[in-house]
Specification:
- The protein is an alpha+beta fold.
- It folds into 2 domains: 13-184 and 326-349, Triger factor/SurA peptide-binding fold, CATH 1.10.4030; 203-309, Chitinase A, domain 3, CATH 3.10.50.
- The protein is built from 11 helices and 9 strands.
- The strands form 3 sheets. A 4-stranded antiparallel beta sheet has the order 5-4-7-6, with helices on both faces.
- A hairpin with a 3-residue loop joins strand 6 and strand 7 (298-308).
- Helix 1 (13-27) runs parallel beside helix 3, helix 7 crosses helix 11 and helix 8 (220-239) runs antiparallel to helix 9.
- The chain is elongated.
């Protein structure tokens, strides 16, 4: 429930972690990003990265080709690009991210081997342009040279081989996935018409609050004092002619954390509001201020700023977003199918 007077609104790191894990799990099915050539971003100080330096120890074999710890770490950093700032991947996320990175790394190798089997090639001009573009990602030539020494022992041949590999992976994915994932305007419209529940807009309210909290395990006298304090502030609240005027009072008077936002609550669906609040709002119009109402251990004054009735999102408003979502879903299906097909005839050895 979004509207709970007195509930602390600080960010929950655990929740953020769960969100990231969900994203990682989705990505882990198969590679869902541009093939990783060098996800290690150039930095001025390589020494600072010493604790993160991967080894060349084998972690998997794909049809005899050895994939190393270094390859795996690059994939991990593609999933969690903030690893360097955090001196590594957070321990609670490491297993999921490593599993996802392994799946992506193996998938890319399978795609690369399939491109070689099909005798696909990269034009020299395309290879040169890709190398030039890559060099532009460095701040200066010194930084690029330092990267070349640390990651490729100064060998341009090794660099070209990595770039060629990435371009071949990209080219095959374009043939097998990108070119087949287009969604027509008719498909978008048909999905909209067949799935009306996806586009229903619930009734919602935008509002502000001034809240006086009752202490935990309060006595009857303390509860009475809290109510009287809220009643004392009610005339000033009702006299407020604008959101800002009401907000200044909320900032000064309220006991809950919404005071730092001038009592503002974002658009909130009715099913996320206490029934008595919904009942009060339905008797108000925009700009009205309620009497003092009790919600749990709090006495609250409400100001209604906007009321949006239930309805449907217009097709013209959602078609661009929907087309993107449908194309992404189709892309994921094609990628998963390709991954499964390539694995069927492959020999993959993982520890």
């Amino acid at each position: 429930m979004l509207f709970q007077p007195g509930v602390n609104m600080e960010f929950r790191y655990k929740a953020c972690g769960l969100i990231l894990l969900a994203a990682t799990a989705a990505a882990a099915q198969v590679a869902s990003h541009t093939p990783t050539v060098f996800t290690q971003q150039p930095t001025p100080s390589r020494a600072a990265l010493a604790p993160l330096t991967p080894t060349g120890e084998p972690v998997a074999r794909v049809n005899g080709t050895v994939l190393t710890e270094a390859d795996l770490v690059r994939e991990e950093y593609a999933i969690f690009p903030y690893a360097r700032q955090h001196n590594g991947i957070p321990q609670e996320l490491a297993p999921e991210i490593r599993d996802g990175a392994m799946k992506m790394m193996v998938f890319e190798e399978l795609v690369y081997q399939e491109a070689l089997r099909r005798k696909m090639t990269v034009p020299a001009a395309r290879l040169q342009q890709a190398e030039t573009d890559f060099q532009k990602t460095f701040a200066n030539p010194e930084e690029f040279n330092a990267f070349m020494q640390s990651d490729f022992h100064g060998s341009r041949q090794l660099l070209d081989e990595k770039i060629r590999r990435s371009l071949l992976i990209e080219a095959l994915l374009k043939i097998e996935i990108q070119s087949k994932s287009a969604v027509s305007a008719g498909e978008v419209r048909a999905f909209y018409d067949k799935n009306p529940d996806r586009f229903r807009i619930p009734e919602s309210f935008i509002f502000q609050t001034i809240t006086v909290l009752v202490p935990e395990k309060a006595t009857a006298e303390q509860g009475k004092e809290a109510r009287e304090r809220a009643q004392k502030e009610l005339p000033a609240a009702k006299a407020a002619k604008t959101n800002d005027e009401f907000g200044l009072l909320a900032e000064k008077i309220s006991d809950d954390d919404y005071r730092v936002m001038e009592g503002q609550h974002k658009s909130t669906p009715v099913d996320q509001l206490p029934p008595q609040v919904v009942s009060v709002f339905r008797g108000m119009k925009a700009g009205d201020v309620s009497d003092v109402i009790q919600i749990g251990q709090a006495f609250t004054i409400l100001r209604l700023n906007a009321h949006a009735p239930a309805g449907m999102e217009n097709f013209d408003e959602v078609k661009a977003r929907l087309a993107k979502q449908l194309q992404q879903a189709k892309t994921n299906q094609l990628r998963a199918a390709l991954d499964q097909k390539l694995r069927q005839s492959a020999k993959i050895e993982e520890p």
